[in-house]
Design brief:
This protein has about 160 residues and is of the alpha/beta class. About 40% of the residues lie in helices and about 15% in strands. The chain has a single domain, classed as 3-Layer(aba) Sandwich (Collagenase (Catalytic Domain)), CATH 3.40.390.30. The protein has a four-stranded mixed sheet with strand order 1-2-4-3. The longest helix is centred in the last third of the chain and has 17 residues. The relative contact order is 0.18.
Length: about 160
């Protein structure tokens, strides 16, 4: 299904060295999220690695105050050729993985999956939608080999 996806990645930050394999992990995460959502159209996602300063400059683009602080999804205006752009703060991902004592790779998978869901119009607009979407994100992360961020059995 998601084999029709092209992921273009640019690194627009110089504060943090991007670990080897990160770009491939982000591509795999985008593919996994689209596969989970049964999205089978040919499309492109642009991913920009940035720092907190640039991410904050884009904060007006956020769809809701529930959106993850490490990623902003900007849906495309050109129709089906591109789903849109993900702006991921490498600096913020690293901060959060230290706070929650999780691997950097797990933070990048989460940011990518969450961002793709946002590009598809799925947001944390209230607590019920947040809980439902977090379950879906956990399912994709599990398929990618990462444990869920929380226990979702009570949702």
């Amino acid at each position: 299904m998601a084999s029709n996806l092209k992921v273009i990645i640019d690194n627009n930050q110089s504060k943090i060295k991007i670990p080897s394999g990160t770009r491939m992990l982000v591509r795999r995460s985008c593919h996994a999220a689209l596969l989970h959502e049964l999205y089978d159209k040919q499309t492109t996602i642009s991913v920009t690695f940035t720092d907190n300063e640039i991410l904050n400059a884009h904060s007006a683009q956020r769809a809701s105050n529930f959106e993850a602080p490490e990623v902003i999804a900007i849906p495309s205006q050109d129709g089906e050729e591109s789903l849109g752009e993900l702006i991921i703060s490498i600096e913020r991902v690293l901060e959060l993985t230290k706070v929650y004592d999780r691997p950097f790779e797990m933070g990048m998978v989460y940011a990518s999956v969450h961002g793709v869901f946002n590009l598809l119009g799925r947001y944390y607009t209230d607590q019920n939608k947040k809980n439902a979407l977090m379950k879906e994100e956990a399912a994709v992360m599990g398929q990618m080999g990462f444990p869920p961020l929380a226990d979702y059995s009570s949702f």
